[in-house]
Amino acid sequence: MFSLGLKRAPPLAEILSIAALDDPTVRTKALTFFLDNLSDKYPDYDPKNFQDLAFVPAVLGSEKVLSKPFEVRDLTRLPLSFHIKVIYGSYTLALNGLH
After folding, report:
1. According to a count of CB atoms within 10 Å of the terminal CB, is the N or C end of the chain lower?
2. Are strands 85-88 and 56-60 parallel, antiparallel or unpaired?
3. Which of 35, 49, 25, 22 is nearest to 9 (CA)?
4. Is 91 helix (H, G, I), strand (E, B) or coil?
């Protein structure tokens, strides 16, 4: 199938656009796929190229929101994973269990 042109992974812009959708199930799967395949399938990812796309799950006060890449930063100094919290201004990134 792949020899017929079927892609093994969606293009970078497409997977991040899906991660920015309103449907929490779809966007969570897209973000999970992106993060799981960041080094292998998306090594050319540069957050500057997506600075206007709100796809980063965050918490603003008590509200779950999607933020732009530069609206959050990692205070834990851990690699991006599903167990970090990130805060920038009033935004907190909470990938663990955000649906």
Report:
1. N
2. unpaired
3. 35
4. strand
Encoding tokens for residue 78?
A: 């851990």
Tell me the C-alpha distance between 25 and 57, whole Å: 13
State residue 5's pLDDT score. Answer: 57
**38-56 residue pLDDT tens:** 999 999 999 999 999 999 8
Q: For residues 19 and 28, what is the distance between their CA atoms, to the nearest angstrom?
A: 7
Residue linked to tokens 């933020």: 67
Instruction: Determine whether 7 is exposed, middle or buried from the number of CB atoms within 10 Å of its CB (0-12, 13-18, 19+).
Output: exposed
Q: Which residues pair with 94 in a beta bridge?
A: 85
Beta strands in the chain, from DSSP E residues, in sequence order: 56-60, 63-67, 85-88, 91-94
pTM of the predicted model as reported, rounded to 2 decimal places: 0.69
Per-residue pLDDT reduced to its tens digit, 23-33: 999 999 999 99
Those residues with Cβ within 8 angstroms of residue 47's Cβ, 6 or more apart along the chain or in another chain: 69, 70
